[in-house]
């Protein structure tokens, strides 16, 4: 058989990679996930299995392959992925109790847009948290609107009262917790319970926490989305997105991704899977350093407020304590002053780069403007909001860098 599941001699059912799995904890799952189902030989890492074309043995074999389920782990044609992509997808599915499968995309935005297209049709209403990532909003306002899908925004703190926003046309809710830029933690279980009672699909952008800190499907979410570009990849060198769905929505998600021709290259899938193996240790270091720096910032006179889910005064902090097992390396703080003051501080930083994205090993600082992306719940928290991604550098060096930034900005109002 000309497919990718051949075992090297001496492995197979009795080989290490074929051992049946004992239930394991998240740290172990990150190491072993996706390994047993897509055996490509007696190796720890699935090789980069590059292929567009499957060569069939004869016409009968070709015809038989057409009856194979689209998500069978048998190589059919490159657009349906191969062993390298399956290993990554399976590892992510295994991280989410209650999940039926995971599709891969060439970016986080591709994952979000395809997931929404999987569950919406003309005439439907999408409810979106007012704290959503700005390209999610743009996709709704531009693309979805053009196809007759209306988007309405709601207060991220709505909780179970989300049902006040429902109408007979409401078909999906896009959640993001914590919210981009402003870090409100939503009451995901309450929102999902209200939605489920009305047959409304819930989708969550879970990029900040990843399933390592927040198991979305288990908490009631139907479709969990990651910009894998961030913590999964972890090294600022690959763009990737993932959508993990429960049983109810898995077929819709998978069929839509296939119809749209979504595929992640095997090289990028390999790098993402390699990133996943070290994600637990990276996340714990991001968490510890971010907490230290957030506390240091909180003690500065120039800082009005730190927006970090683990801080008691963060909106929705009680939900974070109840539902999450940790916090990652991204948070914001409000500087007492103007946008010019924030720019001067950021410009003076040497270790923090100025750039989009986050989740890599390097620290980044970005001036952010949530007031531009709000409608249901205007942002009134201050003009000079700075978002920090805390990388894996020594914390003392990062604090010294910030200290220089504050000094450089001190004479600016
Ligand atoms: C970066 C990001 C995305 C988009 O991911 P890309 O891979 O950059 O397309 C989606 N959601 C959130 C919260 C993000 O930070």
TrEMBL record:
<feature type="region of interest" description="Disordered">
    <location>
        <begin position="1"/>
        <end position="44"/>
    </location>
</feature>
<feature type="compositionally biased region" description="Polar residues">
    <location>
        <begin position="14"/>
        <end position="39"/>
    </location>
</feature>
<dbReference type="InterPro" id="IPR015422">
    <property type="entry name" value="PyrdxlP-dep_Trfase_small"/>
</dbReference>
<dbReference type="GO" id="GO:0047804">
    <property type="term" value="F:cysteine-S-conjugate beta-lyase activity"/>
</dbReference>
<dbReference type="InterPro" id="IPR015424">
    <property type="entry name" value="PyrdxlP-dep_Trfase"/>
</dbReference>
<dbReference type="InterPro" id="IPR054542">
    <property type="entry name" value="Cys_met_metab_PP"/>
</dbReference>
<dbReference type="InterPro" id="IPR006233">
    <property type="entry name" value="Cys_b_lyase_bac"/>
</dbReference>
<protein>
    <submittedName>
        <fullName>Cystathionine beta-lyase</fullName>
        <ecNumber>4.4.1.13</ecNumber>
    </submittedName>
</protein>
<keyword id="KW-0663">Pyridoxal phosphate</keyword>
<dbReference type="InterPro" id="IPR000277">
    <property type="entry name" value="Cys/Met-Metab_PyrdxlP-dep_enz"/>
</dbReference>
<comment type="pathway">
    <text>Amino-acid biosynthesis; L-methionine biosynthesis via de novo pathway; L-homocysteine from L-cystathionine: step 1/1.</text>
</comment>
<dbReference type="InterPro" id="IPR015421">
    <property type="entry name" value="PyrdxlP-dep_Trfase_major"/>
</dbReference>
<comment type="similarity">
    <text>Belongs to the trans-sulfuration enzymes family.</text>
</comment>
<keyword id="KW-0456">Lyase</keyword>
<dbReference type="Pfam" id="PF01053">
    <property type="entry name" value="Cys_Met_Meta_PP"/>
</dbReference>
